Amino acid sequence: MGGKGWLRFYFHCSGTEGVLLDRRGSEVDDLVEAREGAIGMVRTIISRPGPEKWRRWGLHVSDGDGEEIFALPFSSLIGELH
Fold first, then answer.
1. Could you tell me if 19 and 13 are in contact, meaning their C-beta atoms sit under 8 angstroms apart?
2. What DSSP character marks residue 57?
3. If we measure between CA atoms, which residue out of 30, 59, 19 comes closest to residue 42?
4. 61: left (phi > 0), else alpha (psi -120 to 50), else beta?
């Protein structure tokens, strides 16, 4: 990676149990790829055993300057409670 035109984004998770900071970041071509990557990360996380309160967690994507680009609530991918 590190090709010309790539963007580095950081994918931080936060919720009731604390904050997980992404200190390395990931290089992506554009915002579409960043969003697809964020959705994949959240799906992977919620598929594993973890806090019962995943609904209160979110993924926050920021640029190299620390500016938040977008946020993705885990609840948007979990579905409705029954």
1. yes
2. -
3. 59
4. beta
Extract the tokens encoding 53.
């309160």
Fill in the amino acid letter for 1.
Answer: M
Whether the CB-CB separation of 72 and 58 falls below 8 Å is answered with: yes
- pLDDT tens for the chain, 82 residues long, are 445 578 999 999 999 878 999 999 999 999 999 999 999 999 998 888 766 678 889 999 999 999 999 999 999 998 755 4
Element (H, E) at 33: helix 31-46
For the chain, give the number of residues. Answer: 82
Residue 61: other Cβ atoms inside 10 A: 23
Identify which of 23, 11, 25 has the alpha carbon closest to the alpha carbon of residue 68: 11
Q: Where are the domains of the chain?
A: 7-78
